[in-house]
Amino acid sequence: RGPLHLSSLPPSLSSLSSLSPAGFVGPAAPLFAMSTVGHALLRGRMRLSGGSEESDKTTMRKKRTREEMLSPQLPSSRRALSLSSFSTSSPGPEQSADFHPETGLQGEELPPLLAAWVDRLPQDLLEVLRVIEEEGGGRVWLVGGCIRDCLAGLMPWEIDLATTLEPSEMLRLFPRALDTGSQYGTVTIRKGGVSVEATTLRADGTYGDGRRPETVTFGRSLKEDLLRRDFTINAMAVDVGRRKLFDPWGGQHDVKQSILRAVGDAKERLREDGLRAMRAYRFMDGKSGQRHADESLRVALRGSSKLLARVSKERIWTEFSKILAGPRAPLVVRRMAEDEVLSSVTLLPVSPRGLRALECLSCKDLPLWAEQATEMESSHKSYKEDVLMNPKPPKKPQPHSHYAFIDFEATCDDRRGFSPSEIIEFPVVLVESASGKVVSEFHSFVRPRVHPFLTDFCQELTGIKQKDVDSAPEFKEVLANMLDWLAELGLPEGSVMFATDGDWDLRSMLPRQCELAEVPQPVALQRWVDIRRVFSETLKTGNKGLMSMCQALGINFVGQAHSGICDARNIARVGLVLMQEHDAVLSSNSQIKELDSSRKEQTVEEAGETATYDEQRESSICARMSLLVAHVGFAELEDALRRMKLSRDEMRRVRTHVKLLGFLPHPRSPGELRRYRAILGSQLVKIQLKLEAAWAAADESEEKEKKMRLVEDVERELSALPPLKAPNSPQPLVSGTWLMKVGGVAPGPLVGRLKDYLHYCQVLVPPPPLVSSSIRSIKTSRLPSRSSKSSTTSSCSPATWISSPTLRTWKAFRASSGHQRELPDLL
């Protein structure tokens, strides 16, 4: 960069002859290079002349040429973005001129799957990469599981970055970034609609406690950073701008061959962090097929039980629950038992019958896989045509003729305690469900009252300027204008259903805004379709944001994230694709809090209401867990579950399954069958019967066939019973509101169970035996204790099921309400 003035250097360094762009020359060069000042000069942290700081930064940063940035594989739709906003700089303030972070690595062209996925990265993510390289003068790569999943043909849901910048520099470049572990080099960068974890290239020190490194050294070598990772399938990096894949340990080959190998010495990798043993078992169950550990890793895993003793129980259960949620969990769990690791996880002896029962329990018998979902292969294809511009009808009839997709923007700030938030943008996109056409749009900015001046953070995030809200009407007028707009369209009452991305808009924001403006929340906005939940249930995946949903469905995310009208249109695109290509039915699945305590109207659209993905996942995990621990007593089980750090709801589910396992109603007793189903609920009964069948199939005694026939008989007779809801009636015959008002029963699941049972008392002739006797004379003993359970599956007597939580709730109802009349009199 030309001659450098050394007048500011101390006299001890005045003998230096000269400096050149190639480095230091002369006899004192090694001494200078090792000195503190020389190190600062090399890293660009000391100004060498009297020029301005800005000119120094400009001099130290060299822009990459267009030819280097563009690749023939980049589509034309992305080329303009690459030219204008994403360029790679030469070594900047944190790099010496002749140092390359990729030294020792051989890059290769991106495979087709990776190339197609990189072409479709969100614009906000590309902007993050551009800022790091151009404004920060660093280098950045995509690393970790996103590359592994993409090479396996799956949709990557999470993206991690590795960069040469240190956390302080990333926090300076991205004001909205979160310090989620700067001591380990990790910062969560938030930009528009994306949130990614960026970690500084580092080399870990020794792992003294077997959980975390004692020291972390930030470096600039990508090879060293990949060397510290656990498995080869996770030790790959992608340079987006140069379209290069760095795979020094053969991870791409291992993904294709379904092989699981450690990076370097397997025993050493596991000793560094004991949780890596659990991760190894989890990765054996790949979403695209089973992975087989190589010989060195298998040997290392056999002695890994001692390593788990130094890992927190919460982290172990988190990994084990992911294993139980996998489609090939029985194979993985048996491998853990053979390696003598399973007992260290469950804190209980291994049950051979439990392992056999787990293998007999089919995936299709569990809620998570009851309806198989197709993996999203469209994520690797080109973008679909815009469904808003090219409408087509849905695959299935929809319960509403029109859907109004809505997304509010509100006042906000990055500092804590900013309150209250007020709606500042009110957009609605109205779509006709039968044709997929956009009928009309409503869009208005809203003038806030409490915080009339928008913060810089709010304007940058939403793109809304101060002048936009200054000239806008207040919320009360905007809400009235929106309702008038709907009325002018002449649509029949009840034909329009609002739809949102999540519940925040209509469950949290709108009620607060209506209260602030002293207006009631319109009835039409009290129930809605949560598109995020429909997406989760349709594709059998967890909760995803709008940008992730668009990417998974092959939809081009159009416009700026957090722009209300752009987000509303993108939500409409997601809803239309779900209806048109994935057989989704957009039924109302959420409501305001005031309606939670009352039963939803039993309309046609809600007759097939299902649990959320998270509920299905938890039910499946707990069902499998119950088979592994069903062989111990209740006291020992309770202690083990508590020490394993299961949540309260998970413990309740496991206890319920284990307590009922082996007790069945008599198949020829309609009263017992009805009470069995009313007490457990229709969903839990299905799971429990599948567990009973698996537990019976795993029995090696002579009574195995008898037990299996009993389970089949009970299942057949239960399926022949009338549904829990009243036939041909939109309302239950017993009102939950009446029970809570007259009896003082608190809102909750027990109200529904009691209501269902009382419904049977009114509908069925003759009524169940419970209503023909005095409640005071009924035996109220609990279910047989675990210690008294026989080894054979038996049926329960009517008195056993009468002593259910339903009856105990009814007795509490009578006591709290002051009613001394018996149940038949009240009915």
Query: What's the story with the biggest beta sheet?
Result: 8 strands, mixed
Shape: globular
Q: In what range is the share of β-strand residues?
A: 5-15%
How much is the radius of gyration in Å?
Answer: 32 Å
- Spatial order of the strands forming the largest sheet: 3-12-11-4-5-8-7-6
The parts where pLDDT drops under 50 for at least 5 residues are 1-97, 372-382, 597-609, 726-732, 763-806, 816-827
Structural class call reads: alpha+beta
Helix content: 40-55%
**Distance from first to last alpha carbon:** 94 Å
State the total count of DSSP E strands: 25
Number of helices: 36
Can you describe this structure?
- By secondary structure, the chain is of the alpha+beta class.
- The protein contains 36 helices and 25 strands.
- An 8-stranded mixed sheet has the order 3-12-11-4-5-8-7-6.
- Helix 23 packs parallel to helix 25 (564-581), helix 29 (670-680) packs antiparallel against helix 33 and helix 30 runs antiparallel to helix 31 (704-720).
- The longest helix has 18 residues, at 564-581.
- Mean pLDDT is 77; it is low at 1-97, 372-382, 597-609, 726-732, 763-806 and 816-827.
